[in-house]
Fold these 4 entries.
Entry 1:
Amino acid sequence: MMITILYILVLIFFILLAAMVIVPVFFGAPWHPLSDKNINRIIKFADLQPGETFYDLGSGDGRVLIAASSNQCLRGVGVEIDPIKVWLSRYFIIAAKLADKIRIHRGSMFDFDVSEADVIYLYLTHQALDRLFPEILDRMKIICYRFCIRNLEPTKMNKDKNLFWYQVNKGRTVNEYS
Ligand SMILES: C[S@@+](CC[C@H](N)C(=O)[O-])C[C@H]1O[C@@H](n2cnc3c(N)ncnc32)[C@H](O)[C@@H]1O
């Protein structure tokens, strides 16, 4: 009896994990949790300035937003399609005592209003990036991890060529007040 219950629990765990990782592919991008080292590299590369509003489209477990908001005095906004990750990220944010700085919305990034963003961070796929543009292109500083924006020259790239910075109109103004 105990073995059967254990078996069912393990099965449920793997079904949930598969749903969290694979199902989002059909909505825009799969989930791939980042190591703390990679998150720190991304935050350092983004050169965030106090007062900026940082958006993560497809915010996953929220750890990039947490790192961005705890290192710098900035507001974070995430949008995530998967309700389990929305719940998980909200839990992490409360545990990090950052609930007054970070908001996670449940929904699709393709209908999400980004007009308040100073910095947009994107770890998605080429296909999802193609769908997002050009709507957000002309407004802000955009940081992409692993997947660059096709046919657009980045302003800056790291030496591993997996972090891309696109500095557009709003970003230029924001960076001047540092
Ligand atoms: C590669 S992960 C990046 C997670 C996080 N941004 C990070 O860097 O650690 C992509 C995330 O986008 C989410 N996602 C996929 N399609 C989406 C959509 N249409 N709207 C919002 N989130 C979506 C997935 O559930 C997944 O958590």
Note: The chain has one domain: 2-167.
Entry 2:
Amino acid sequence: MKLKISRIIAIVMVFAMLLASFSFASTNVYTVKSGDSLWKIATKNNTTWQKLAKINNLENPRLIFPNQKIKLKDENIEIISKVKVNKVNNVKKDTIVKKVEKEKAEIVIKNGNIYTENSKQEKAQALAIKDGKIIFVGNNNDVQKYIGENTIIKDLKGKTVIPSLMDSHTHPGMVGSSAGNKELAKYQLPRTSKEDMYNYLRKIAKENPDLPFLFVGQWSNKLYGVEGPDRKYIDDIFPNTVVILLDSSGHSYWLNTAAFKAFGIDEKTPDLKEGLSFFVKDKNGRKTGWVKEFALMPYMVGMPMDKEAVAKGTLEYLNFLAKKGVSSVLDCGNFTSEKAVYEVLSKLDKEGKLPVRYEATHHLFMPNQLENAVETVLEYRKKYGGNLLKFNTIKIHFDGVTEVNTAAVLEDFDNEPGNKGGMLFSKEELKNLLLEGAQHNIGVHLHSVGDRAVRTALDAMEEAQKEYGGALPNKLTLSHLEVVNPEDMKRFKELGVIANFTPHWFGGTVFQGGDVALGEERYSHHQPAQSLWDAGALVTFSSDTVSMPGMPRSNPYMGIQMGITRQEPVDGKDTYIHGQISDRMTIEEMIKGYTINNAIQLGIEKETGSIEVGKSADLVVLPKDIFKMDVYDIYKLEPEQVYFMGKSLDLKNK
Ligand SMILES: [Zn+2]
């Protein structure tokens, strides 16, 4: 057994105290005489037989025998003798004493099949929890000494334990807000044909003749192609109602003329960012009503919000995640609603209602937000930050998506020659933001779909490191990564840039039109998770859930399964495999990605992410061994027990 230098110093400090205690140690042992009972010994020595049974680990307190040594007091101290020489100080010591705090645990878990995700001690049988922290990880014998009078003992009978999972890119605030928007939940536009959709809209118009405002989704991008929809198709259905129809990618809107009038949009209204956020024009230069990405955002600031409904919806979503064993989330943005959302969350945090650690972000989607970005995070830290709600990240919608040809790609889109998409900021701007964030430990999390966005971000980090003179203290995470140029793969490791994926999308069913835009070759290498892992990148996983109807898909076990299979779970083993077979991950990688790697991305790896002494007791007890079970059944897993900061969650009640 090797002692670390830092521990030796601590040990020397308590040395004097130990010597004093040592002299008492031998008087605290009683030798059993014939006719003794534990009860008798206890009464004579001013204690209880229960205490003696615990201190001495007596399985049957009735069974003691003559000459048996019974400890009367729990020794707080153990002496380890004859540890050799403290070479650093060249001081010879014959004895180095180690203080072993035999603290009693609140909870002891034994007979477990524990996967720790701690590379120094990968498996364990038992662990002990006190004050929300793990105080012991090891075997069934050694955990005994942590069992005190009030310790709750959980015999797992061989069940599997893993560290809690995390969701390192999701949108609880948006899920909560979507629950507050009754219309969005009420209507679902059919995607079968254009005619089906117009008929559906006519039905809504007929049933609600005086409707002032309609905001629903989601129409199919694929049906309308590169040219896109036009307001003239819906103006006759809704001549007066202000209509905003969200598309199936969630990255563009279709407005009618009444909406143009209401927002004051005319032919002179400028675009927000070329190639990314803009009003689509027809051959004659007329705005068609198709609005890509965030060009509409400046007009949506004043949208009303029912805070109670948002709180209720957000909590429902967070509780859903918590019961799946998710202990921490990164909120990757709430657009114009972020202040309202964080106000709601701050209140929930103060009331002790948050069931997870909540890392929040300041969300950039318009060019003019760059200037005050860092300042805003600092302001949020002060104003909303609390016990579980933290602000350490700027989220940027750096490029768009492949479904509406707004992702920044190195080669033109297949279905639109001359278009390479767009980016919100330049390399220089991103570099400066990284350097500014470094001063306050504010990380940057990028929505980066296309290979040009990925390369630009890597270049920005490379230049930032040159200017900084080494690795930055703050992190850069690239999320989505639908297309990554093979030449850039190894740069993630070199630059310490984190690769975040949503394996829930690896079935390929959520991308409508991305295949047409990218073309067969690029699309066949979609979301190269294993390739990046093999290139040494730190890979992390998340659900990227944005609305209440999407909540079931934020199930992390679904993500784990889809990371391994790259197939839709409900369709079975023989269904379509998305992307490259060689990009299938292993179960070991998936669990690492969802636990310790996610913790590193969130900057909380010292606090949680593995089952290790000193870390928060965030654990999941599973009914099956997730590492050995049929991969195609993983998505059905339901935890039997979830511990968050040492407290067992009530999995039955809402
Ligand atoms: Zn997202």
Note: The radius of gyration is 30 Å.
Entry 3:
Amino acid sequence: MTYYFAATTPQYQPATFGTVIAGSYLGSLAPDIDDAGADIWHTVPLGHTVGKIADPILKHRNISHSLVGLALYTIIVYAILAALPSYWGIATWPVLISSAVAYASHLLADAFTVEGIPVLWPWKRNFGLPPKPFDGIRIETGHWFENLVIFPAVNIILIVIIMINWDNIKRVLLK
Ligand SMILES: [Zn+2]
């Protein structure tokens, strides 16, 4: 592992590496903006009334926990990266891929919870892993588990995998 790090880092600019880590972190948290959106309504005056109307739209695990959300997120991150000045030395693809994969890993982690996720939004049906009738072993609430165990582990693994395979990934994408 240390060898791979030592062997693969020289081809990366530090700015790219830092942005990959930041992008992965952001990607792993971004799907829960629909949850945060719902909470905002309880902190403003008349929020409860507005929140009741907005709740069906902003309900936890809505569009951001779907493939549509993943696609939108990827487009937004790409747009941000494309807008950055090139002299910052941030390579777009490693950041974009690792951030999108982190986002997808959040969806995957949420799929292991009892609630499941509406992965085929706007179809409102929630899907989970494992599917019924084996859903009894799903996690009761995903938050502590995904935040403290799954995300850090998955992100570190993904970053290492992407770094190790970066030459191959680049060849496939940029051919
Ligand atoms: Zn979530």
Note: The chain has a mean pLDDT of 76.
Entry 4:
Amino acid sequence: MICSLVCAWFIHVHGSEHKKQNAFVGKGASSSFAFYPTLCSTTTYIDQCATSATLNAEAGQSNYTWNTGATTQSIIVNASGTYWWETIDLNNNKVTNGNFSDGNTSFTSQYTYATPSSGALYPEATYTVTTNPRNVHPNFATFRDHTGNRNGNMMVVNGAPTAGVTIWQQSIDVQPNTDYIFSVWFTSVYPTNPGKLNFSINNSPLGDPIELTTIPASLDRADWKNFTVRWNSGTSISAVIGIVNQNTAADGNDFALDDIVFAPVCRNYFNVTLRSNPAKPTIIPL
Ligand SMILES: [Ca+2]
Ligand SMILES: [Ca+2]
């Protein structure tokens, strides 16, 4: 009863603030209310008579990082306090033409560009920008770009057996002392010897090797996978970001990439207040 009264008062006094924050105020012994922040760096306020609250990060992320160490979309917290989860600020992508919609522009490659046509990618160490790998090599798989758009472009590469060659590179401006995520979607376009690559920044390798997976011999679909690496800009105000081939296999080693993002990490905060029921009074027998 006491808790209900306290919470009723709190909702009355702070209701307008909570509405503005688009948060839901609930009460009860436990909570399964959903919270979906839509903007990065916002704070969602939660205040409820409960011993726990469920915090839901925005759906559709490829990975989740909470300050508690959790990596799931939702977490249950049992104490008042400030919690946050990190994501990529996609509204601040520094890459130009990362989805290749503008074709073969805004980036450089140490491989040779081939104008899209049947068999254009027969030679090793060539690349193109096209809507279907089969369009440029009869032995490559047939599929759409990463977003599944029939008219969407991707970069298709016939990898060559020389390590340390830059496949894709672009110079970008960055803010100093900021954490960034470099994110790329890759798939093999041929089953043999899936590609091995590295992220690079300012011509130094960064992060774990990017090891692609094979695709079915039927060559009827892609296996798009997302690879990311984190980087702190330090004192830099610009960076040369790149993707470097590390596979020395002669056969196969052919792949596609799409939706390149280089954007700051941002955090969404939850400010949680949990109000427990007070202890029941002790009834002393007469
Ligand atoms: Ca695309
Ligand atoms: Ca090849």
Note: The chain has one helix and 15 strands.
